[in-house]
Amino acid sequence: MPQDTKIARPPLYIQADALKGRGSAWAMPHRFEAREREQYDDGWGTLDQSALEEHVAPRTEIIEEQARKILSGNQSPDIGFDLSINPYRGCEHGCIYCFARPTHSYLNLSPGLDFETRIIAKVNAAERLREALSSPAYKPAPLVLGTATDAYQPIERKLRITRAVVEVLTEARHPFSVVTKSSGIERDLDLIVPMALKQQVSVYLSVTSLDPALSRILEPRAASPQRRLQTIKALAEAGVPVGVSVSPVIPFLNEPELERILEAAAEAGATKAFSIPLRLPWEVAPLFHDWLRLHQPDKAARIMARLRDMRGGKDNDPRFGTRFTGEGIWAELLQQRLRKASKRLGLGRERHQFDFSEFRPPAKVVGQQTLF
């Protein structure tokens, strides 16, 4: 979003214990907030009345953005790709643990409720991608679609921004990977399958739990666990290289399911697997604490104690080299379980290898005219 563009903030939602279909009911202030706001008893019983009122989840608001660029370069030494494309900012799936929630702070929006209800749609994403790939200076490199948002979140069914991006990648024969929790990717099989046959695409489905009840409160608007397994099967049967991401692993919550998830994914047709322990950067930590208080009060202390054991005694460890694995005996045990289960099930740990030899810059388009 242009730096001089500011988004008007809605009134602070009165915090309810939970909002149907939302991961967080808390429009928590972000770390750049200049002012603090709190509820105030005006003597007329306002707070008591608010506590008794039925809280209705706010509708999703789509804010259109004309992006200046769509390709983001990666400078982190522990990430295995060079470029990423995020067609949206924010994500309606509402996963309470999402590490990308703090990015809404840069828009002067809450990483809590705003992140999942106020979605920024980069409506010119395909146009910007075409410009970038057709530049004489561009060299193809490993690219991932949907790193700080789910490119196939519910609003994509209507806006089709991701579809347009994939069309450009297909035209350019540019390899890419996708990580998603959505069955919506099946819509684009007509584009993805031909690329898969040329070693130009791979897909990972994130399966966090096989328990529908847990999934419903942990990631309320993502596809159900069973539906994700069906998507793995559909992709595999169509010839698309597909893997499973068991991420994040949350001690004592979904961690006991690790092997069962890998088994279910392998049975559905997954051939690769990886897993990352829970990360709680910036505002994600208080949001997750609040979620635990509401949904897992009996396990909250144990979960956080074990997590801190893997994060150097802190809620979060942002250091390169350990942030995606954790450290200590419990982190090592998790990695050992992942390795052994993957080996037993024939799930590879290495990344899919792509063929970049067929890349060709897409045609430059100005209005309705194609320049040759």
Automatic annotation (TrEMBL):
SUPFAM superfamilies: Radical SAM enzymes (SSF102114). Residues 81-306 form the Elp3/MiaA/NifB-like radical SAM core domain. Keywords: Iron, Iron-sulfur, Metal-binding. It comes from the Bacteria. CDD domains: Radical_SAM. Pfam families: Radical_SAM. GO terms for molecular function: catalytic activity; iron-sulfur cluster binding; metal ion binding. The keyword Endoplasmic reticulum does not apply. This is Radical SAM protein. It comes from Roseateles chitinivorans.
